[in-house]
Amino acid sequence: MSMYSKLMNKYRHAFICLSALLTFSVHASDDKSANPLKIHGFVAQGVIDVDGSNFVNDDGELSTKLTEIGLNTSYQLSDDFRFAAQAVYLNGGNRYNEGLRVDYFLMDWDAYSSEEWQANVFLGRFKNIHWLHSSTWDIPFTRPSIILPQGVYFDGFRDISVGGDGGAIKLTYNNDHYGEFDFNLSRGKSTISSDDAEVFISEFAQGDIKHELDTQASIYWRPMFSQWRFGLSLLDSEFNYDGEAIDAFVDGHFELQLYTVNAVYEGENWEFTTEFLQSRFLNEGFYAPQFHQDNIAQGGSFQTRYKVNQELTMLLRYEKFYSNKDDKKGHQLEERSFGTVPNYFGFQNDAMLGFSYKFSNNLQINAEHHWMKGAARLNPIVLPNPQVNKEHWKVWAIQLMYWF
Amino acid sequence: MLFVMLIGSPVTHAIDVITNITADTASITTAQLRRIYSMRQVKWANGVPITVYVLSSNNIIHQKFCKETLRLFPYQLDRIWNKLTFSGMGIAPTPVNNIEELIKAVKSTTGAIGYIENINEVSDVNVLKIDE
Q: Which residues of B touch A113 (CB under 8 A)?
């Protein structure tokens, strides 16, 4: 099979959907009178260097695997129905599977609209709208930093976490005394390709991992005219692994319940953001038929931004994450593995300093340095690799981004 | 002294909110204006879709409108609009290049809303009274 055929097979779904998106966009753009068509996009390229881990690459060299490109369209079919789609190309090295993706492809039904209430129903492939940055995880200029806090926004789970195929409801309520409320509910599942699975369950897994239907809900509240906004999200998800006859792993069942709370303050010069998570991760089988593990992970980050002027913003963030709240230093993890998995795979802390500079309304550069301690959020997480992943490691990255 | 200060001050005008004559409203609250510009209210009470026109984020009139009328910072609106645009969950307001384009767009678009600095120069639009 030629290289071209292999590529086509690998990205067939993405190619078909992107072609449909572009064809539809070109066709729709013929009708300018009602102006129902919107087209937007972004391009971002950077360099990233990691010292002491395989976060981006295995050889530790300076890497250009920091590419994010996207194109989206929105077409208003009638007063109540809208079609929207976005395709993205991502290359983050070992962080997630490199390639083209259909990011979202949905029909938006404006089900109810009044001065106080707004209800929308989304069907198709939709983005995760529940966490603080989940709906624009891959959109470089909407993120506070190039690398997001890995406790909540673990890049290895990006393709599972970033959205799903199914349905979502967004309900907003506006009260002139109590403020603005958002209620979000979604139910769907993600398709996990063998390439996606290889990132987080290693190249030795020969079987298939399937994401069963998951349910997510969130609520956000901004008090009237307040600079503060508060959020809460809940996730209930299940996965099954079907091992092959010759496989390093056996059949397995995984359950994940994730809770996040967040608060944001947006002042004229200062901004504060915090997001905490607690997740229960149940693992039955997979490593061995009788294997059973039921851990509660905890984590959180605190971030402040200071706008020096309209162009320059400084950023400071600290994050802590533990895989098991009853084993915060990872000693039990090391004991259970008979010393093969060092204790620092039980946690990951990140101290980060960065800045962004806006050259214009749609051209920006971000730069940041991370001082990491621990390796709990390094791929593949089911098979920790202490040979290349040290307890203390560093990352610096610079990324230039343009959008329209 | 007062005379000298008045002579030396640049002439400034209050920001007025204008709508297409089809929008069935004469007054609006600040809270409702925030809802419209943050795309949380997308239709007028009579069911007509609202088309929101804006100047660019670094335009002085836009910044004044955000801070003084909406009591929001321009970057807050940019974030809301970018999130809607790039998550597929909604659409952002339609940007225009200058105040002349904005007035022309509001006049010619059913259900449109916009803002201007000097209302004396404009006709054939509704000027909304803003209530607290």
A: 41-43, 47
A201 DSSP assignment: H
Q: Is the pLDDT score of A5 beyond 60? A: no
With respect to residue A61, please indicate whether it lies within any of the assigned structural domains: no
- For chain B, give percent helix, strand, coil, nearest 5: 40, 20, 40
Neighboring chain A residues of B27 at a CB cutoff of 8 Å: none
Nearest CA in chain B to A224: B31
Q: Is A89:A65 a contact under the CB 8 Å cutoff?
A: no
Of the candidates A106, A142, A361, the beta carbon closest to that of B88 is on A106
B119 burial via Cβ count (<10 Å: 0-12, 13-18, 19+):
middle
Report the CATH architecture of B13-131: 3-Layer(aba) Sandwich (3.40)
ipTM more than 0.95? no
In a domain, A345, yes or no: yes
Asked if the peptide bond before residue A386 counts as cis, ω within 30 degrees of 0, the response is no
SS3 state of residue A333: helix
* Domain membership flag for residue A178: yes
User: Residue A156 belongs to what domain range?
Assistant: 106-403
Q: Any idea what the Cα angle at residue B51 is, between residues B48 and B54, rounded to 5°?
A: 155
Q: Answer whether residue A268 is part of any domain.
A: yes
pLDDT in tens, A260-272: 999 999 999 999 9
Instruction: Give the residue-averaged pLDDT of A101-110.
Output: 96
The answer to whether the Cβ–Cβ distance between B88 and A310 falls below 8 Å is: no
Chain A residue with minimum CA distance to B82: A142
Do residue A142 and residue B82 have CB atoms under 8 angstroms apart? yes
A-chain residues near B94 (CB < 8 A) = 35
- Tell me the C-alpha distance between A184 and A118, whole Å: 12
Sequential DSSP letters for B6-67: HHHSPP----EEEE-TTS--SEEEHHHHHHHHTTS--B-TTSPBPEEEE--TT-HHHHHIII
Chain B interface, Cβ < 8 Å to A? 29, 31-32, 35, 38, 40-43, 45, 47, 49, 56-58, 71, 73, 75-76, 79, 82-83, 85-92, 94
Mutation for B interface: A25, A115, A315, most B CBs within 10 A = A115
pLDDT tens digits, A359-398: 999 999 999 999 999 999 998 888 899 999 999 999 999 9
A266 interaction partners in chain B (CB closer than 8 Å): 73, 75-76
Write the residue in B42, B79, B94 that is nearest to A118 by C-beta.
Answer: B42
Closest among B107, B118, B106 to B53, alpha carbons compared: B106
Mean per-residue pLDDT for A295-303? 97
Q: How many domains is chain A built from? A: 1
CATH number, domain with residue A297? 2.40.160.10
**Helix residue ranges, H only, A190-342:** 194-201, 331-336
